[in-house]
Prior knowledge:
By secondary structure, this protein is α/β, with parallel strands linked by helices. The chain has a single domain, classed as Amidase signature (AS) enzymes, CATH 3.90.1300.10. Helices cover 35% and strands 14% of the residues. It contains 16 helices and 15 strands. The strands form three sheets. The chain has an eleven-stranded mixed β-sheet with strand order 1-3-2-8-10-9-14-15-13-11-12, sandwiched between helices. Helix 3 (23-41) packs antiparallel against helix 4 (49-64) and helix 10 crosses helix 13 (345-368). It is globular and about 60 Å long. The relative contact order is 0.14. Residues 472-488 have low confidence and may be disordered.
Amino acid sequence: MTDVARLSAVAMSALVRARELSPTECTVAVLDRMAAWSPALNGFVDFDPEGALIQARAATDSMRHGSEIGPLHGVPVTVKSNQAVRGFPTRRGSRLTSTDPAIADAPLVSRLRRAGAIVVGTTTMTEQGWSATGDSPLTGATHNPWMFGRTAGGSSSGAAALAGAGCGPLHVGTDGAGSIRIPAHFCGVVGFKPTYGRVPYAPVPNNANLSHAGPITRSVHDAALMTAVLSGPHKRDPFSLPGTMSPDVQSGDLSGIRIAYSPDLGHARVDPDVARIVERALVAFIQAGAVVEHVTPSWGPGGPAIIRDMWGLDVLGFLPGDDIRASQMDAGLLACINDFDRMTAIEGINAAGRRLSYAAEVNAWFPDEDWDVIVTPSASVTAFAVGRLQPESWPQHPWDWISWAEFSYPFNLSHGPAISVPCGLSTEGLPVGLQIAGPRLGDAMVLRVAAAFLEAQPFNERPKPPGDDVRVTIPVEETEESTREAAA
């Protein structure tokens, strides 16, 4: 049953359709693995095995009665806790959110259920998704399955940790500056941020259209399948795109594909171990037939100032209002708010204007320079200690985690697709990911190149299961509101 838990969604759904596995068998296998890993990872806000089994038995019964089944029939899935899941509170990593259960599903959750997926719970995230580490005042630290005591990354922390541990094939994440791709990089899995609007996001967050929703998986083909299920317009998201995406990924042959490779985007610091592993992985693209050239994109150095202003505008929406509420919040988030609380409306408007110019430059660069995709490291570092915003060896700052995450946000600013795929292990045995990104609406090409890479250089490493002595101490102040979530 452990092997069933590690099946891809493509394989699991095929076995269900062939009546070689039932939805109940799939769900029991995944729940058993989650129960074994969950105490060490601390990846769930709400874990609902009983509810998942009810859904699975209903899905099994529907097959006995000959009902039409969807593309994810019987496949377990988790949902990041900033997306409404009927019956669970939408906590967003914050003590200041309501404990009342959601009365309706978010659009993407409704689509998963309609496709036959089994929702097993909601996963941890940083407070309001503000950082790319794995800590929140609500649930404490989410640990990396490859090395306990190291961060799983964020803000889609629990989703990536569970995926990395082989706890089911499909996990919903969201990404405002790297929050799908960075934890995927840290945890050795695939994280795909589709083109903005490809997956409806409702209610639409008031963060300058930075946030995308997408899959965290262990396979590019699973990422494509999940994105296809989630894609298409929705009346509650005015930015959602017409049409749906195909679940199929083209052949791994990359003949004629031109790949730009930038080790630093012209400005980013990268740890030597990460740089070496990503550089070494380039041969896989060449083996698949692609042309790879080193570049320094013109738009790279202009990104840091823009994202920090946009991030400042975003976090101002979480002003605590009083000292009591402030005491319940993440200290780094408060420091970021305090640094930007004097930003004027004119400064904000000007920052938004510079962002639009930047997006136009990024998206025009691909066809103008005749590149299909660009490859970079997914982040500058491997997973560092929980409880930190920066690795100990990096310059310290009260809130600026972006200093080691300069590769992901350009494609939030530009609304283009980007994916992180694992490309090796560091000298410490921690995963390293490389990022493949493209222009807006270039999702199919990004997925094609990513699939070809993993076909040429498969990532078959697995983390060791937690020992009986590995347990997580949840470092949060126990309040009436937070005790239940911390224990989940």
